[in-house]
């Protein structure tokens, strides 16, 4: 497993982390755009929820596998996770209704808890 939430005090590492998070968001946005046109809303949120849930799971496993998180890394990780969640929440909205909590419940709440802990 590639760990990119490491040494984020370095501008190059921070830029690489941002690039990876942005890439994940873009890929899921592209898939969401295509699926939204061809799937019913209920199938769409279930299918997209699986992708979002898996992505959050991978990110949380990477973070929780770290033995130590520096203060700088914690701030940057918290910022990147907050961006990721905000984008995923927007993607998972159907008819103005938020669906991410229903279809990605465990991974969504775990990510929120990690963000909360990193802020403290």
Can you tell me about this structure?
- The protein has 120 residues and is mainly alpha-helical.
- It has one domain.
- The protein has five helices and two strands; from the N terminus they run H-H-H-E-E-H-H.
- It has helices at residues 11-38, 41-64, 71-91, 100-103, 105-119; strands spanning 93-94, 97-98.
- A two-stranded antiparallel ribbon has the order 1-2.
- A hairpin with a 2-residue loop joins strand 1 and strand 2 (97-98).
- Helix 1 (11-38) packs antiparallel against helix 2 (41-64).
- The protein is elongated.
- The model has no long low-confidence stretch (mean pLDDT 89).
The largest pleated sheet is described as: 2 strands, antiparallel
The beta-strand count equals 2
Rg, alpha carbons? 15 Å
Helix content: over 70%
Question: Reading side by side through the largest sheet, how are the strands ordered?
Answer: 1-2
Give the count of structural domains.
1
Structural class estimated from helices and strands? mainly alpha
Count up the helices: 5
Distance between the termini: 27 Å
Q: What ranges have pLDDT less than 50 throughout 5 or more consecutive residues?
A: none
**Rough shape?**
elongated
How much strand?
Answer: under 5%
Order of helices and strands: HHHEEHH
Average predicted local confidence, pLDDT: 89
Short description:
The chain has 120 residues and is mainly alpha-helical. The chain has helices at residues 11-38, 41-64, 71-91, 100-103, 105-119, and strands spanning 93-94, 97-98.
């Amino acid at each position: 497993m590639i760990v990119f939430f490491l040494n984020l005090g370095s501008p190059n590492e921070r830029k690489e982390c941002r690039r990876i998070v942005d890439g994940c968001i873009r890929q899921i946005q592209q898939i969401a755009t295509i699926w939204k046109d061809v799937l019913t809303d209920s199938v769409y949120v279930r299918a997209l929820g699986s992708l979002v849930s898996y992505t959050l799971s991978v990110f949380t496993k990477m973070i929780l596998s770290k033995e130590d998180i520096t203060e700088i890394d914690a701030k940057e990780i918290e910022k990147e996770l907050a961006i990721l969640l905000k984008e995923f929440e927007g993607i998972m909205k159907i008819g103005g209704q938020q669906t991410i909590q229903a279809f990605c419940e465990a991974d969504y709440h775990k990510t929120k808890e990690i963000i909360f802990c990193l802020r403290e």
